[in-house]
Amino acid sequence: MATTATILHADLDAFYASVEQLLDPALRGKPIAVGGGVVLAASYEAKAFGVRSGMPGRQARELCPHLTFVDGHFKDYQRLGAIKLISDFTPLVERISIDEAFADVAGCAHLFGMPAEIATAIRWRVRTELGLPISVGVARTKHLAKIASQVAKPDGLVVVDPDTELEFLHQLPVELMWGVGPVRKAGLAAIGVQTIGQLAKTPGWSLERLPGPAAREKLAALAWNRDPRQIKSHQRARSAGAQSAIGKKPAEEWVYRPTLFHLADRIAARLRAKSRPGRTVAVRVRFANLNSVTRSVTLDAPISATLILAEVASDLVRAVLAEHPDEKTISLLAISVSHLEEHWDLALELPLGLQDEPRRPGTKIGMARSAADRAVDKIRDRFGWDAIGYGSVALGISRSVPDDFRELAEKDL
């Protein structure tokens, strides 16, 4: 394990929303959200009202009546993704998503200066070349670097001195840790744990009330900043996906929505079976002329719920069709979920960290939906897949029956 703070975690702030405000100056300083039925991203002005990614659009409007929804410019998101700039400083870059990455700068100090200077240079280049805000955390481990970047938000830099890292870490709220969503946060609060320092000093037998022995051990280790993980510069994103050839059918919602729900049903069930929810949702739309367009979004926290996955995928497909108004016919649809989390328990379904979120497990609606997913899974395990299904999948499916269905097991689209 490193003894000096050479690990950087760079995270573009409210990336999709920041790009929209960059492209349209009239949106700057205003609460905006990318998406429609589901919020794909929110500006900091919108977040101040409680709007968060993954939230239903209707609830977002209730929280922020002056919220402006935009469809999103996904080509510009790819063009303005600043993570590639980091590779100008070091080859040891582990990309997490289009707007987030780790880097190890231990071997390039003789070229670019100390880690804090490199982090400052990265932020300056992103701001001057792209016009976007980015927060960077610098620490001895990946876990602490990521926490430091969260503390640095918005548009800041935090460098954690190894000599005082535990003092810095232990004063922070426990929800900043990986694997602590609303359900686990509530479980820890029930035993008097609200800060990372309190978690570090909690005996193991007290943590036995929390689900998942592996997750408990992981949290206990991270509370003391014991994180041996190295930068994986050539890591390929693992994902679970499915696609369906639907023939040549109109590019209309009554066609693609039932098919997307059908695909989401298959994928989400597999994710729940492995207890591996994912943060990034991608869709691929192939038109009659065989041209394909792929779009993706990374949520604040991993999901494995059928309805949420279907709604996010529907918003992405809607954005693709808005970008290609001349395309009138669809021949194939695909969904993929990547950046899977291995340490999340099934009990942490939909840990979106949203205030008063109807789909959050702690609410009645959220608990009911999680219970429904698990009940459906159990019935299918015993009586077969066709024994039960979701009405949102079945309704309308007769008008849009997939001609071909293929699952893509843990591979990219």
| Overall average pLDDT | 82
End-to-end distance, in Å? 35 Å
Low-confidence runs: 343-363, 395-403, 409-413
Which superfamily, in CATH terms, is the homologous superfamily of the largest domain?
DNA polymerase, Y-family, little finger domain
The chain-level structural class is: alpha+beta
Strand percent estimate? 15-25%
Question: Within the largest sheet, what's the order of strands?
Answer: 5-6-1-7-8
**CATH T-level topology of the largest domain:** Dna Ligase, domain 1
Total domain modules: 3
* H/E series: EHEEHHEHHEEHHEHEHHHHHEHEEHEHHE
Total number of strands: 13
Can you summarize the main beta sheet? 5 strands, mixed
Number of helical regions = 17
Topology:
Layout: E1 7-12, H1 15-23, E2 32-35, E3 39-42, H2 44-47, H3 57-63, E4 68-70, H4 74-80, H5 83-86, E5 93-97, E6 100-104, H6 109-112, H7 115-130, E7 134-139, H8 142-152, E8 157-159, H9 165-170, H10 182-190, H11 196-200, H12 204-207, H13 213-223, E9 239-250, H14 253-274, E10 278-287, E11 292-303, H15 306-323, E12 329-340, H16 364-383, H17 391-394, E13 404-408
